[in-house]
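Running this now, will post back.
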Amino acid sequence: MSIATGQATRPLIGQVAKRPSILSRVIAHRTDYLYVLPAIIVMLVVIAFPIYYTIELSFFRTPPNLQMRDKIWTGIDNYRTVLSSSVFHEVTIQTIIWTAASTFFAFLLGLGAALSLHREFIGRGVMRALLLIPYVISAVAASYVWKWLYHSDFGVIGAISVQLGFTDEPINFLDNRQTVLASLIVVNIWKEFSFAMVMLMAGLQTVPDQLIRAAQVDGANAWNRFWHVTFPHLKGVSMVTVLLLMVANFNSFIIPFVMTGGGPADASHIWITHIYQLAFGRQQWGIASAYAVILFVVMMALGYFYVKALTRGDEARAG
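Update: finished.
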């Protein structure tokens, strides 16, 4: 009897258990959701509502006082205005140049610094501390320091260039449309390369020393050891680092705003500073909201690739 009972309660071979529904799983873990409910409420208030409000404003023409009862429905006219604007095209090109150049050179300098500091030498700890200073210093403080360094009359860089005979007069870095964006990119690279250095130094810890020694025994030179042994182990962390730098550069507001405010003649505006000017300078809330929604879509796309890069290893192990 007991055997029969045991056989009756044993699941049949090949029988697939029915997967519980989402609602049943939520009910089963209702206590867990209660613990995170305060955080969910804060996120809805701080994140979800502003996103919804911005998307709603992007379909209206609003007065400067931002009274919602006075707004006028315009449909997608704000998006048409933004996408057809010559200023939008100019700012988009500047944003692409800003993001691509800052990301590429910050990653390249960070990689070089990480490879240099990965070796044993006297004073390595001091060098690490010195190279971390740009990353830990306040962006506002760094912007004001570099603004004075670039100053056309009292700047140290201009004075040194004149004393060394490189130029006849101090270089006008920030008030010249031809040089202002490149000057800001230099500051941004200086500020961000330390982050890439830290990330890549962590990645270098995962490279097996046995493979490096084996390649060295086989006669591989330094470049071949790096390209065929070290760099393949850095692909994952490199992808994450590049994506994080791109996201940070798309949202980089402090350096261009503090140093130039988007000038001269909008030559240093990028998307986020131009959105700020439209909203709080010209009080064109609807157009600024449409602009912000476009930026939000771009950031969501970058976020998708970032998550894919993070979960690539898990998917490979699961497969």
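Confidence is low (pLDDT under 50) at residues 1-16. More later if anyone needs it.
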